[in-house]
Amino acid sequence: MTIADHHPSESVRFQGIVPPLVTPLLGRDTLDVDGARRLLDHVIAGGVHAVFILGTTGEAPSLSYRLRRETIRLVCRHADGRVPVLVGITDTAFVESVELARVAREAGAAAVVLSTPYYFPAGQTELIQYVERIAAELPLPIMLYNMPSLTKVWFETETLRTLAGIRRIVGVKDSGGDLAYFERLANVRREVRPDWSILMGPEDLLTDAMRLGADGGVHGGANVYPRLFVNLYQALRDGDDDESARLAEIVARFQAVYQVGKYASRFIKATKCALSLEGICGDRMAEPFNHFLAPERGRVRSILDSLRPPT
User: Of these residues, 145, 225, 233, 258, which one is catalytic?
Assistant: First the structure.
């Protein structure tokens, strides 16, 4: 990770494993401060290269703005420069995104992460104009976040070519799950912004993504087993085919936890459940979601027991 300065005019490059942290909760609007600290210490001890808070896995759209601000300040303070902190600021309201970015800057975050506004889908022309306007207001480097399954809108590659002219944008995190799209993204980086960082979201695609030029991954499973994902990333970087294949097979088996439960929120529920089973933080979900009950917890426990990843 190369961080020249936390100023948008400076060069910022993100690489490696960047877990999108869950947001540990004690109540409807109460942060689990001790759990958040344990989680952060856990992933840093596992060798991660940065952390990403208030993303999808962090349940950001379900959290109050007050709680989001508290989370930003707590994580940045507890990270204390050990790893860069990226802060999700995606919102339906322009001014709320800007306000969260200002809080992030004051707290010492390294960058903000911005997806497409959700609920009313924006057209690509509107999206370009929106990003141009908001980028002028943001006090930190920006990672764009492609998450079409939840926002209903892609950052189309021609849109990214246009937005590449904004120097404050330093890269893209892609969670679309489409390797053909990711290859086009890599081409945009090569042709117009070789300084960009491009990161893969779905953890089972890390191997393929890195072969296409990814700088690393933003993987929810790294909340639970950070060292597993860090070791896989390093083996891929080193060209160690045997070791990367061995570790990728463990990651592939870990994906079974995301099949527990029947609702779309199950991947967050499974991550929080696994963390609670490992004694790191509780599994309370932001409303309207429920945590896993005993049958589902038992299934997650069985999957974790079968993996035995490196410590």
Answer: 145
